[in-house]
Structure prediction request, 433 residues.
Amino acid sequence: MTGDGSEMGGHAGRLCGLASAQRRWLGRLLIPVLLAAIGLAGVALISRTNTTGQEVADLLAESYVEYPQQPGPLRSLLMRARLVKPPGPPDRGRITDELAVLGRPAVPHLIRALDDREYAWLATEALGKIGPDATAATPRLIRHYRLPSTPDCDWGVVCSSIDLALLRIGAGDRTGRVVRELERALNGPIERERSGVAYVLGHLHREGRSTVDVLTRALTDTRSAGRVQAAYGLGIALQDRRDSPEVPPAVAALVDALEQDEDDRLRGAAIRALGSLRTTDGAAIAALVSVFVRSRNRCLTYHGAKALTRIGPPANVAIPALLDIVERRAPGWRDARWALWHIGPPRRSDIPAVRLALFTCDDDVRFHAARGLAAHGLDSPEVVTALLETCMTHRALSARAAAKETLARLGHHDVTAVADMVGWALATERPAR
Prediction:
């Protein structure tokens, strides 16, 4: 009995050892099986989710709204698998509409989404569509201007979406918070932010929000780093609004910047803004004319001519000065000559000064003077002679054609025929020399 008992005990011990070994083996086998099953389920879930933009919209809504305390495990899983990509343009508006419907509760989560470069564009557009309820996102949207371009996202596209979002938020904001944040960024150290907010401030004024005083303060503050951008914003805010009561202080600030500052960037922005305003202020027109004398920067003189042309006939007060600049060959005489083409006829009070220009030796000056006088119907021998000489000898085909047209308008069709013949004879003789 003792032997049988010991044998049975040993057999039971072996069975227990085998059972424990089997349990250990089954446990080791079960863990990989369970992990594989979880992986297959995740892949199945991913493949089912990566289909349409609508499902991506639902995914983002789940991640940023229904799970406010965590970053969205489902979306994180999909992003790690690199199987969810930003939807294309056909789905873009629909997705942002879906997110905008969530309204104010979605704003904190959309602000967090701005940190995700792959979905930042979507969050930006959704915040813009939410509108004034998203004013809390203004500082983050302004800082978003700093983002560099990447192969997948161009900086210009990012800026456009930020501009539109800030415009939509600021246009309906009645608290003034958006304008205050924009003013703070306009005087800040980051140039990309300054450029973006100046554009937004200018367009906000056109949408009914008063921002001209903000831009004027930044322009007149010599300590501000955003003076160039402020001038640019004023040109947008007051474009073609020369009769607005807000124009005189802005024009005075722009003229001071143009005449007293040595920074060509600021002066160029002031010139473009004055042309955009189409101001008839005499001091502004005189400041634009002085650019042709003072500056050797061809970019400034070009924009000065464009500004005078945009102002149009009210700038004809500058014609005697421009004729003198062309005759003296001042630094910007070529652009002054271009402005003479487009401003229009001189004022009647300036006719004596323009008539004197007929007796100069410069072909350009004589032609423009005669053309301006002919616009008033003056058909003197000096005018006809200057126009006839232009028809025959001027080096520019456009000037010859304009002089011929002016003579015909005065009724001198026979003179134009003679001019054509003489001009043709001179042209055929020149190669023989």
In short: DSSP finds 23 helices and no strands in the chain.
